[in-house]
Amino acid sequence: xxxxxxxxxxxxxxxxxxxxxxxxxxxxxxxxxxxxxxxxxxxxxxxxxxxxxxxxxxxxxxxxxxxxxxxxxxxxxxxxxxxxxxxxxxxxxxxxxxxxxxxxxxxxxxxxxxxxxxxxxxxxxxxxxxxxxxxxxxxxxxxxxxxxxxxxxxxxxxxxxxxxxxxxxxxxxxxxxxxxxxxxxxxxxxxxxxxxxxxxxxxxxxxxxxxxxxxxxxxxxxxxxxxxxxxxxxxxxxxxxxxxxxxxxxxxxxxxxxxxxxxxxxxxxxxxxxxxxxxxxxxxxxxxxxxxxxxxxxxxxxxxxxxxxxxxxxxxxxxxxx
Length: 322
Fold this sequence. Notes:
Layout: E1 16-18, H1 20-26, E2 30-35, H2 47-60, E3 65-71, H3 75-87, E4 90-96, H4 105-112, E5 116-120, H5 123-139, E6 144-146, H6 158-169, E7 176-181, H7 185-196, E8 202-207, H8 212-227, E9 242-244, H9 257-270, H10 279-292, E10 300-305, H11 315-321
C-alpha cells in the first residue's frame, strides 16, 4: 500500500461506547456510538480526520493559505480555520448566509481562530466567489490551497478510509454503521475502507440534504477516485453505496420534530449531545428505522457520531432545543 502524506493531530482512536438506555427506550437493535465528536481539533468532529490529509497535501504543495466554503455555521469551516491556525496558514472562508450582528457558535469560533470571512447570500454566488477568491489569492502570490466543500475530495476521503481500518482494529462486531452524509467525503471513505479492510457489515448514510441517487452516484465516483491513491483504481458503482434520503425533505438546516426528538433522546438517556443539522438528522433517521424494524432486534447498529455540537449554541437553533 502506498504511503499517503498525513499529519497526525487528531485524537485517535476515538472510543466506541454502548448506548444501553437508548437501546432499551427504543426496544430494538443494540446501539453503539463511535465518538468522532472527540477528535480534538476545535471541539472535534469528522472533518479533523480529513484535514490530517488535506493539510499535509497543502504543505507538500508549498501552500501558505487555506481557502474553503460552507454555511454560516459550518462545522467544516470551523475545523479548517483551526487547522490553519495550528499549522501557520492564513485562512479565508466564504460562508453562505447573513452575517449575524452577534457572532455565536461556529461563526464566533471562525473569528476567534483568525479567519478572514466573506459572506454571500446565495449558494451559487458562494461557489463563484470562492473561485474568484482563490484566483485572486493566486494572482497576489499568496500560495492558496483550496480545501473542498466539506473536505470531500479523494484526499479528504482518506480520513474515513483509514477510520474504517481503525474501527476494525477495535474488534467491535457490528452489523450496521449509520451516519450523516452530505458532501460525500465521509461516506466515500467508509465505502472504500469497507472494501480495503474487509468490513463485512453494511454502511448506511442518512442523507442530510441530497437525493438518494445523486448521493450514490457521487459517493461511488469519489470512492473510485480515492482508491487510486493506493496504486490501482477500484471501480465502485452506485449499487455499492447505501443511502437513505427519507429524512431530509424539509431541507438543509431545517430543525424539525425528528431532529428535536433525537437530540432530546440522546441527551436525556445517555448524556450525549448531537447537533441540530447533521447528527440530529442522522440519529432521527436511525431512530425511525429502529422503530420500523428495518434493523433486526438481534443486530448491532453503530452510530458514527460526526460532531457538530457548537451549532447547538447558534441563535437559529438554541431557542428551539428545549
